[in-house]
Amino acid sequence: MATVEIADLRKSFGAFPVVHGVSMDFKDGEFIILVGPSGCGKSTLLRMIAGLEDVTSGTISIDGRVVNTLSPKERNIAMVFQNYALYPQMTVAQNLGFSLELSKVPKAEIAAKVNESAEILGLTPLLDRKPSQLSGGQRQRVAMGRAIVRDPQVFLFDEPLSNLDANLRVKMRAEIKALHQRLGSTIVYVTHDQIEAMTMADRIVVLRSGNVEQIGTPMELFDYPKNMFVAGFLGSPA
Ligand code: ADP
Ligand code: MG
Predict the structure, then answer these.
(1) ipTM score here?
(2) Which residues surround ligand 2, an ion (CB under 5 A)?
(3) Are 197 and 221 in contact (CB under 8 A)?
(4) Which of 178, 121, 116, 189 is nearest to 150 (CA)?
């Protein structure tokens, strides 16, 4: 578990500013959801937190320590993407264990970690299958399993359910919430799905063109949207 503090974070691609001085603090174990229109900088923010993208200025701290110059691995953060890109030639077990193998973790420890995360995600009967033999929801669970095996302090999810059909999306929401309760980890989760945001978040961050428009609990945003933009996303019309 970990706190995450983001202070006046900015990002430009060339001369083109994309994130304009964003500040926000996430508490230990909090489930934070980032929402906002396409192109407002959600993925760029997550990638900066993960260390996959340099920051132009500002700081990212985890448990009070500035991590700007740390590699993704050193940050102990795991990211789950929309197109979860499993290795097609590997079994589920190999997919789950691969990053630990790269880190030269001893074989017995890898096996224990793989079994534990498979158990958490209900993947134990599927460990010998290839990704092509899995359903969409099962693949998404493997993608989450690959994140869990590393025992990250912070999970980042970038629209993880947007490729799934509506029924499965509802089911996976509940699974991700259950996972959060079980692990107690801090989660930062991007979605453009209003229901996902309202039902899953401890707090919601509404972004607009690289700025924070409002941060609050689902009820706060629903009852007291700061403006029509926030209302249009989540709240009742003013
Ligand atoms: P979101 O995830 O909210 O849809 P992104 O963070 O992906 O938004 O993108 C924010 C803006 O930054 C967009 O205008 C996008 O075109 C631009 N952008 C993202 N990545 C790059 C990049 N590597 N190079 C140039 N522009 C980028
Ligand atoms: Mg995005």
Answers:
(1) 0.98
(2) 42-43
(3) no
(4) 116
Q: Is the Cβ–Cβ distance between 82 and 162 less than 8 Å?
A: yes
**How far apart are alpha carbons 143 and 147 in whole angstroms?**
7
Residue 37: nearest ligand to its CA? 1
DSSP, collapsed to helix, strand or coil, labels residue 129 as: coil
Pair type for strands 31-35 and 186-190 = parallel
**pLDDT tens-digit readout, 8-45:** 999 999 999 999 999 999 999 999 999 999 999 999 99
Separation between Cα atoms, residue 127 and residue 132, nearest integer Å:
13
Q: What is the mean pLDDT of each run of 10 residues along the chain (238 residues)?
A: 94 96 97 95 96 97 95 90 86 95 94 94 96 92 91 92 86 90 93 90 96 96 92 67
- Size of the chain, expressed as the number of residues it contains: 238
Pairing of strands 203-208, 31-35: parallel
Q: From atom 26 of ligand 1, which residue's Cα is the shortest distance away?
A: 13
The whole-model pTM stands at 0.92
- Which residues lie below 8 Å from residue 29, measured CB to CB, with a gap of 6+? 1, 184, 185, 186
Say if residues 32 and 188 touch (Cβ distance below 8 Å). yes
36: buried, middle or exposed (CB in 10 Å: 19+, 13-18, 0-12)?
A: buried
Q: Which of 34, 43, 156 to mutate for ligand 1's pocket (most ligand atoms within 8 Å of CB)?
A: 43
